[in-house]
Amino acid sequence: MIYFDNSATTEIDESVLDSYLHVSRKHYGNPSSLHAFGEETANLLKQSRKQIASLLQVDEEEIFFTSGGTEGDNWAIKGTAIEKDTFGKHIISTTIEHPAVTKSLEQLEMTGWEVTYLSVDEDGQISLDDLKKAIRKDTVLVSIMAVNNEMGSLQPLDEIGDLLKAYPSIHFHVDAVQAIGKIDLSLAESRIDIAVFSGHKFHAPKGTGFIYLKKGRQLAPLMSGGGQESGKRSGTENVPGIVAMAKALRLLLEESTDKQAVVRSLKDELTSYLSGFNKVTVFTPAASAPHILCFGVRAIRGEIIVHALEKKGIIVSTTSACSSKRKTKASTVMDMGYSKNEAESAVRISLSHVNTLEEVHQFKAAFDDIYNQLKEIE
Ligand SMILES: Cc1ncc(COP(=O)(O)O)c(C=O)c1O
Q1: Which fold would CATH assign to domain 2-9+256-377?
Q2: What is the mean pLDDT of residues 42-51?
């Protein structure tokens, strides 16, 4: 099998799985327990937090473990809303966020919050001018993703951060789930207050994740209970998952510039190959993350291509995994100005550094066949 659906989830790294199993078997004490056995686990938790903080060049106290990207986005948005509702009830976001963001915002809208959704241009980017105009006295949160999961398009995070420096009380939340290891994120120097990460997108186990919360920023907890994670996220910690995630992050960020270059070269190869077909439209803009490539074959629904490739042992997806089983529009494609028909043709290839040029060649051979068959049916 050739796996080109790494933005949906990744294969767990073998050595990461070994760590997960080792901690599960040998260190199952509760880190909150008083006995030495629990303390051993607490130490593993501490070391993992330290390692993640040092890899991201932030402080340990700025890392809080979660169950993944969905929890992180919910927490960033609803936690800010609870924290700041006496100051204002207005949020700014974009039309192309992941459902973990949009559904959280919709829930707040049902309880009296107002949300301004910024649209994107043909490169999938918001306009700084629009953002500036949308800011109001009662704006408490700006929530903008780093890398779009359907298209790979990028947002101008540094420029947004510069603009928000004039509004220090506004929380700046960035969904960085598709960005880690793919683009450079310098959290400490940035204006970003909350960044959200998900382990299973970078070869760690599912059900793992963390948020970065800038020191001094307040975020109300959504999980109340025993007071774990400095009282901010209660619940017995998934220590095997956390240890494994810290290792996966270390592996991901080792020689990450080289890995990004490899992934970029595979994507460039695929882009120039697909651009050679007169019925193929490459939707992903040139300025995009190295691993995501969204394209469509004119008048052919995306799922036809997905299933045809699957028959040849190649796994890709329509748009995001969350929406691909529901018959929703490929929203980002339409938001970038393409038609509904074009959006329905969207297919997403998402790569990882574990993919190879040989796999790209096999994809090309398979796609040649499929394209020729489709031509015969016409
Ligand atoms: C941009 C983005 N945000 C959030 C999520 C949700 O992450 P998780 O699957 O860890 O809940 C995803 C998952 O696809 C994503 O791509």
Answers
A1: Aspartate Aminotransferase, domain 1 (3.90.1150)
A2: 98
- 181 touches ligand 1 (CB under 6 Å): no
Determine if ligand 1 sits within 6 Å of the CB of residue 102. no
pTM over 0.85: yes
* Residue 329 predicted with pLDDT over 60: no
Tell me what pLDDT residue 331 has.
Answer: 73
Q: What is the pLDDT of residues 334-352, one digit of tens each?
A: 999 999 999 999 999 999 9
- Report the separation in Å between the CA atom of 178 and the middle of ligand 1, taken as the mean of its atom positions: 8
Which tokens in the block code for residue 81? 């809303």
First to last CA, the chain: 29
- CA angle 160–162–166, rounded 5-degree value: 105
User: Are 2-9+256-377 and 14-253 in the same CATH fold?
Assistant: no
319 — pLDDT class (breaks 50, 70, 90):
confident
Q: Which amino acid would we find at residue 296?
A: G
CATH assignment, 14-253? 3.40.640.10
pLDDT reported for residue 375: 78
Domain ranges of the chain: 2-9+256-377, 14-253
Q: Among this protein's residues, is 294 annotated catalytic?
A: no
Structure tokens belonging to residue 270: 């695929």
The encoded tokens of residue 193 equal 């207050």
Provide the 10 A C-beta neighbour count for residue 371. 17
DSSP string, 111-157: TT-EEEEE---TTS---HHHHHHH--TTEEEEE--SB-TTT-BB--H
- Per-residue model confidence (pLDDT) at position 124: 96
pLDDT at 323: 55
- 238 token code pair: 């998934």
HSE (side-chain half, CA atoms, 13 Å) at 226: 8
* Beta carbons of 142 and 170 less than 8 angstroms apart: yes
Work out the number of other CB atoms within 10 angstroms of the CB of residue 337. 13
Residue 9 CA, ligand 1 centroid: distance in Å: 9
